[in-house]
Write a structure and sequence with these properties.
The chain has 6 helices and 2 strands. With 149 residues, it is mostly helical. It has a two-stranded antiparallel sheet with strand order 1-2.
Length: 149
């Protein structure tokens, strides 16, 4: 297997890219008063009303402590409900409010621009191949029992 010409291992590039994405999201959303976790919740709620448990389940792949943090995300001082971005729906579900939907749409445009910048210079096939390779590596570790899925 050929090594990276930079001499840096896969783990370096994964962590470096993760940190750059976090910083990129923070910079592109800062003036809107939204962080990446709030964006992920807004985007999830854009798909329809959710219970807190369902929201946590959908956020869990991106946010390992989502179940513990979803209450603060919804109800905390900077939460979606106190800020008027979400509102109660039927039962214990929450949904985007009108201001939340408007914010979601504005953020979605910026996120699409950031994603396009990240993918500059890659073909669709290169991106798809990278995702496939990462998925295989993850499955290999999951099948080994090295980590929890």
């Amino acid at each position: 297997m050929e090594t990276d010409p930079t001499g840096r291992p896969l783990g370096y590039w994964l962590k470096h890219l993760h940190n750059l994405l976090e910083d990129g999201f923070a910079a592109c959303l800062a003036d809107l008063g939204v962080d990446r976790r709030q964006w992920q919740a807004l985007h999830t709620l854009a798909g329809g009303p959710r219970t807190p448990d369902a929201l946590a389940d959908l956020l869990a792949p991106f946010w390992p402590d989502a179940r513990a943090g979803v209450d603060g995300l919804l109800h905390g001082p900077a939460g979606l409900l106190p800020r008027g971005w979400a509102e109660p729906a039927d039962g214990d579900r929450v949904r985007l409010s009108r201001p939340g939907r408007e914010l979601h749409d504005a953020v979605e445009t910026r996120v699409a621009e950031l994603r396009a910048a990240v993918l500059t210079g890659l073909t669709h096939d290169q991106y798809a191949g990278t995702v496939r390779a990462l998925a295989v590596m993850a499955a290999n570790l999951e099948n080994r029992g090295a980590v929890s899925a």
